[in-house]
Amino acid sequence: AYPLRALAWVWSPASPETLSMDCLLPRNTHLPISIQKVLFYVCSPLVILGLLLLIEMGKVYITRARNILVAVQVKDLLHSSALVAVFFFYPSVLRSFLSMFACIPIDQPAPAPYTPAAIGSYWVLDLNQVCFIGYHKAWSLAFGLPCILLVCLGLPLGILIVTYTKRAYLSERATRQHYGFLYTSYRQS
Question: Is 68 helix (H, G, I), strand (E, B) or coil?
Protein backbone atom coordinates (compact mmCIF):
# COMPACT_ATOMS: atom_id res chain seq x y z
CA ALA A 1 0.00 0.00 0.00
CA TYR A 2 2.86 2.39 0.75
CA PRO A 3 4.38 2.37 -2.79
CA LEU A 4 0.94 2.96 -4.27
CA ARG A 5 0.35 5.85 -1.90
CA ALA A 6 3.70 7.36 -2.94
CA LEU A 7 2.84 7.01 -6.64
CA ALA A 8 -0.58 8.56 -6.05
CA TRP A 9 1.14 11.47 -4.32
CA VAL A 10 3.57 11.98 -7.25
CA TRP A 11 0.87 11.70 -9.92
CA SER A 12 -1.64 13.80 -8.07
CA PRO A 13 -3.46 16.31 -10.28
CA ALA A 14 -2.93 18.97 -7.62
CA SER A 15 -0.31 21.66 -8.06
CA PRO A 16 3.08 21.10 -6.39
CA GLU A 17 2.33 23.81 -3.84
CA THR A 18 -0.58 21.80 -2.42
CA LEU A 19 1.27 18.50 -2.12
CA SER A 20 2.52 17.77 1.36
CA MET A 21 4.96 15.23 2.75
CA ASP A 22 2.49 14.65 5.58
CA CYS A 23 0.23 12.70 3.21
CA LEU A 24 3.01 10.27 2.35
CA LEU A 25 4.24 9.43 5.84
CA PRO A 26 2.58 6.71 7.92
CA ARG A 27 0.61 7.84 10.94
CA ASN A 28 0.48 4.51 12.75
CA THR A 29 4.07 4.59 14.04
CA HIS A 30 5.52 5.70 17.34
CA LEU A 31 7.35 8.56 15.58
CA PRO A 32 5.45 11.83 15.17
CA ILE A 33 4.99 13.11 11.61
CA SER A 34 7.27 16.09 12.30
CA ILE A 35 10.18 13.81 13.27
CA GLN A 36 9.48 11.57 10.27
CA LYS A 37 9.70 14.63 7.98
CA VAL A 38 13.05 15.68 9.44
CA LEU A 39 14.40 12.14 9.08
CA PHE A 40 13.11 11.93 5.50
CA TYR A 41 14.76 15.18 4.46
CA VAL A 42 18.01 14.23 6.18
CA CYS A 43 18.14 10.71 4.69
CA SER A 44 17.13 11.67 1.14
CA PRO A 45 20.69 12.75 0.18
CA LEU A 46 21.94 9.29 1.15
CA VAL A 47 19.35 7.71 -1.12
CA ILE A 48 20.31 10.07 -3.95
CA LEU A 49 23.97 9.23 -3.39
CA GLY A 50 23.17 5.53 -3.62
CA LEU A 51 21.23 6.06 -6.85
CA LEU A 52 24.07 8.12 -8.34
CA LEU A 53 26.52 5.38 -7.46
CA LEU A 54 24.29 2.70 -9.01
CA ILE A 55 23.99 4.73 -12.21
CA GLU A 56 27.74 5.27 -12.39
CA MET A 57 28.45 1.59 -11.71
CA GLY A 58 25.92 0.65 -14.41
CA LYS A 59 27.71 2.90 -16.89
CA VAL A 60 31.05 1.25 -16.01
CA TYR A 61 29.52 -2.22 -16.37
CA ILE A 62 28.05 -1.37 -19.79
CA THR A 63 31.31 0.08 -21.09
CA ARG A 64 33.28 -2.92 -19.81
CA ALA A 65 30.76 -5.28 -21.40
CA ARG A 66 31.40 -3.56 -24.74
CA ASN A 67 35.14 -4.20 -24.25
CA ILE A 68 35.91 -0.51 -23.89
CA LEU A 69 38.85 0.09 -21.58
CA VAL A 70 37.69 1.93 -18.49
CA ALA A 71 40.25 3.20 -16.04
CA VAL A 72 37.69 4.30 -13.50
CA GLN A 73 37.53 2.71 -10.10
CA VAL A 74 34.38 2.45 -8.03
CA LYS A 75 36.16 4.41 -5.30
CA ASP A 76 36.54 7.38 -7.66
CA LEU A 77 32.87 7.15 -8.66
CA LEU A 78 31.75 7.06 -5.04
CA HIS A 79 34.04 9.96 -4.22
CA SER A 80 32.77 12.19 -7.03
CA SER A 81 29.12 11.32 -6.42
CA ALA A 82 29.50 11.92 -2.69
CA LEU A 83 31.01 15.36 -3.25
CA VAL A 84 28.18 16.31 -5.60
CA ALA A 85 25.53 15.06 -3.17
CA VAL A 86 27.13 16.77 -0.17
CA PHE A 87 27.45 20.18 -1.79
CA PHE A 88 24.04 19.99 -3.45
CA PHE A 89 22.12 18.89 -0.35
CA TYR A 90 24.16 20.66 2.34
CA PRO A 91 21.82 23.68 2.67
CA SER A 92 18.62 21.62 2.86
CA VAL A 93 20.07 19.11 5.33
CA LEU A 94 21.35 21.91 7.52
CA ARG A 95 17.94 23.63 7.31
CA SER A 96 16.27 20.39 8.41
CA PHE A 97 18.57 20.06 11.41
CA LEU A 98 18.10 23.70 12.38
CA SER A 99 14.32 23.34 12.06
CA MET A 100 14.45 21.03 15.06
CA PHE A 101 15.15 24.15 17.15
CA ALA A 102 12.69 26.51 15.45
CA CYS A 103 10.10 27.61 17.99
CA ILE A 104 7.59 30.45 17.89
CA PRO A 105 5.55 32.07 20.66
CA ILE A 106 1.84 31.50 20.10
CA ASP A 107 -0.01 33.34 22.87
CA GLN A 108 1.07 35.91 25.41
CA PRO A 109 -0.44 36.22 28.89
CA ALA A 110 -3.41 38.58 28.74
CA PRO A 111 -5.39 40.44 31.39
CA ALA A 112 -8.98 39.50 32.21
CA PRO A 113 -11.48 38.98 30.56
CA TYR A 114 -9.22 37.43 27.93
CA THR A 115 -7.85 33.95 28.42
CA PRO A 116 -4.98 32.85 26.22
CA ALA A 117 -5.41 29.38 24.80
CA ALA A 118 -1.78 28.40 24.33
CA ILE A 119 0.81 30.31 26.31
CA GLY A 120 4.36 29.41 25.47
CA SER A 121 6.65 28.62 22.63
CA TYR A 122 5.67 25.92 20.14
CA TRP A 123 7.69 23.94 17.63
CA VAL A 124 7.28 25.22 14.07
CA LEU A 125 7.11 21.71 12.58
CA ASP A 126 4.40 20.59 15.03
CA LEU A 127 2.38 23.42 16.52
CA ASN A 128 0.76 20.99 18.96
CA GLN A 129 4.14 20.38 20.60
CA VAL A 130 5.48 22.76 23.24
CA CYS A 131 9.15 23.48 22.66
CA PHE A 132 11.69 21.44 24.59
CA ILE A 133 9.08 19.38 26.39
CA GLY A 134 8.43 15.70 25.79
CA TYR A 135 9.66 14.15 22.58
CA HIS A 136 10.80 17.51 21.17
CA LYS A 137 13.37 17.91 23.92
CA ALA A 138 14.64 14.35 23.48
CA TRP A 139 14.92 14.52 19.69
CA SER A 140 16.31 18.03 19.45
CA LEU A 141 19.02 17.54 22.06
CA ALA A 142 19.90 13.89 21.42
CA PHE A 143 19.63 13.92 17.61
CA GLY A 144 19.51 17.52 16.39
CA LEU A 145 22.37 19.02 18.40
CA PRO A 146 24.99 16.35 17.56
CA CYS A 147 23.95 16.42 13.90
CA ILE A 148 24.23 20.19 13.71
CA LEU A 149 27.68 20.04 15.27
CA LEU A 150 28.68 17.30 12.84
CA VAL A 151 27.32 19.08 9.76
CA CYS A 152 28.34 22.64 10.70
CA LEU A 153 31.79 21.76 11.99
CA GLY A 154 32.51 18.39 10.40
CA LEU A 155 32.12 19.31 6.73
CA PRO A 156 34.24 22.48 6.77
CA LEU A 157 36.83 20.77 8.97
CA GLY A 158 36.88 17.77 6.62
CA ILE A 159 37.39 20.05 3.62
CA LEU A 160 40.21 21.84 5.42
CA ILE A 161 41.92 18.57 6.32
CA VAL A 162 41.60 17.12 2.81
CA THR A 163 42.87 20.23 1.05
CA TYR A 164 45.70 20.64 3.55
CA THR A 165 46.87 17.05 3.14
CA LYS A 166 46.61 17.28 -0.66
CA ARG A 167 48.35 20.68 -0.90
CA ALA A 168 51.47 19.17 -2.52
CA TYR A 169 49.36 17.45 -5.19
CA LEU A 170 47.00 20.29 -6.13
CA SER A 171 48.30 20.50 -9.69
CA GLU A 172 47.87 16.78 -10.41
CA ARG A 173 45.00 15.75 -12.67
CA ALA A 174 43.31 13.38 -10.19
CA THR A 175 43.38 15.95 -7.40
CA ARG A 176 42.02 18.68 -9.68
CA GLN A 177 39.29 16.32 -10.85
CA HIS A 178 38.08 15.60 -7.32
CA TYR A 179 38.85 18.80 -5.42
CA GLY A 180 39.49 21.41 -8.11
CA PHE A 181 36.21 23.22 -7.55
CA LEU A 182 37.43 24.07 -4.04
CA TYR A 183 40.59 25.90 -5.04
CA THR A 184 40.86 26.61 -8.80
CA SER A 185 39.39 30.12 -8.48
CA TYR A 186 42.20 31.15 -6.10
CA ARG A 187 45.69 32.30 -7.08
CA GLN A 188 48.89 30.98 -5.61
CA SER A 189 50.65 33.43 -3.34
Answer: coil
Show the CA angle centred on residue 150, arms to residues 24 and 97, nearest 5°: 35
User: Which pTM does this prediction carry?
Assistant: 0.72
Q: What is the mean pLDDT of each run of 10 residues along the chain (189 residues)?
A: 61 56 80 90 84 80 68 65 79 91 84 76 91 94 94 87 87 82 78
Question: Is cis: bond before 113, omega within 30 of 0?
Answer: yes
How far is the C-alpha of 100 from the C-alpha of 122, rounded, in Å? 11
In Å, how far are 4, 87, 89, 142 from 127, measured between CA atoms? 29, 31, 26, 21
Query: Which residues, listed in sequence order, are joined to residue 121 by a DSSP beta bridge?
Result: 105
Per-residue b/e over 75-100, b at no fewer than 16 CB within 10 Å? eebbebbebebbeebeeebbebbebb
Report which secondary-structure segment, H or E, holds 121. Answer: strand 120-123
Whose CA is closest to 26, among 11, 36, 12? 36
